[in-house]
Amino acid sequence: GNTVTYDWKLEWMIAAPDGIARPVIGVNGQWPCPSIDVMEGDRVVVNVYNGLGNESTSLHWHGIHQKGTNHMDGPSGATQCPIAPGQSFTYDWIADQAGTYWWHSHNMGQYPDGLWGPLIVRDPNPPFQYDEELIITLSDWYNEQMPYIIHQYQSTDGAAEDGTPDPTGGALINSGRNVSIHVKPSTTYLVRIICPAAFSGHGWVIDGHNQTTVEVDGVYTEPIVATADGKNVRIAPGQRQSFLMRTKDDTSKNYAILDFMDPNMLFINKGQKPGPTYPLNATAWLVYNTSADYPPPPVLYNLGNNDFFDDVNYVPLDKEPLLEPVDRQLVIDMSMENITGISRYILNGHTYLGAKVPTLYSTLTVNESEASNPDVYGDINPYVFKYGEVVEVVMNNLHSNLHPMHLHGHQFQVIERSDPKAGTFSGSYSKLPAAPIRRDTIMVQNEGYAVVRFRADNPGIWLFHCHIELHVEAGFTATFIEAPEKLAASDFTIPADHINACKTYPMDYVG
Ligand code: C2O
What we know:
Elements: E1 3-15, E2 22-27, E3 36-39, E4 43-50, E5 59-62, E6 88-94, E7 99-105, E8 116-122, E9 132-139, H1 146-153, E10 172-173, E11 178-182, E12 188-194, E13 202-206, E14 212-216, E15 219-225, E16 233-235, E17 240-246, E18 255-261, E19 282-287, E20 328-339, E21 342-347, H2 359-365, H3 368-371, E22 382-385, E23 390-397, E24 403-407, E25 412-417, E26 438-439, E27 441-444, E28 449-455, E29 460-466, H4 469-473, E30 477-482, H5 484-489, H6 496-504
Parallel strand pairs: 1-4, 3-8, 9-12, 11-19, 20-23, 22-30
Antiparallel strand pairs: 1-2, 4-6, 5-7, 7-8, 9-10, 12-17, 13-16, 13-18, 14-15, 14-17, 18-19, 20-21, 23-28, 24-27, 24-29, 25-26, 25-28, 29-30
Residues 60, 62, 75, 104, 106, 238, 406, 408, 463, 465, 467 line the site of CU-O-CU linkage.
């Protein structure tokens, strides 16, 4: 492949995607931030300069496995120190997985302030045909900046989840609330949907057009019409979904699109219902004809779980078989506690507090036998896996909200997901799929569970966390330490810019 180099200066700038001006983090004076768009096999080099002045940063390439390049994964505290204001830092990795991904800040709950963009790795021979492509991002939006929102969320007057500020700007499609998407007639579009939301999952309806899903989270699926029987497409924070859409031959009409925040999320239980007047939705139009009417969006009332296509039913096109037998089952009970007025998420009794030294560096500096001992790592919810074992993770969501759980370094197989309020996993599977769908993020239902599997064949430090950014800041993270003895035994040396980041940041690692 080629080497594709991006020189990115991160800076605050002013934008008003919902009409209300506020500071956002842009790249080279551009917001929404640019896409990374490369061919499968390309080497991607991103030279980052932190010009923010008041905040440190780090960048993560969501969904990219970083085989052999764990130190380029990006989460501060896990694989690197934060990049301080005024510092430069280079990310350098191989884009060896075709598909739809995204990049975002992985430091201090920062990405909802605008520091994210699409990451497209193109397949020279995709297993479907299309004429044109659309990249659509669906997000919630806030008129306050994240440091303030996080403070509110964790302040003593916010009673836990009720302290979540409502998204004041509502949902956004490609960073606007009323967006025209111009299409050609009689054309097959590949529509890549990315959900970089901070809090809410999104539903998505295009009037009069079917959506045939062909990819989720970088995994090709058997083509499935996800909008049959009036079902809506749902996408959770962190997820991607691509579909084929054939446009009409007739150009006399335009069609409305509704992007609505997931009505199953807690904040909507505050008494609001999705619909055209619901202030938190965004509308867009498939525009065939600029002189035709722009019709109102579809009316959706009392949407429930069953009104969404169940994405567990996707089948990977490669039919990769179920991983079995399971060598290691890890059960994680996930809950929230209001600890003296502060919302903290608890995984098997522990909240993630973070490490003073990036966990990867700890692994590299201890001896091989110590590396396998979870006790050396501190308050990071460490789980150590042996090289090559098949790990089954059971997530019991004891909480009353949905949680999109994301694993770095892998696409896990989705074995099963319960309905809301189904309780905890009993230990018996309702049905073991022959070829489970694989993805990197799964929405776990409120007071329900999900079961996933992966093979621990990617030595590294990989975070496993809820992709609701406020929940990350409230400790909803575990650290999967995969084959640490291989890292400890490697002759890998930490690059100078990584060591430099740790010297200026108040962490006690000195390279
Ligand atoms: Cu999209 Cu740990 O992140």
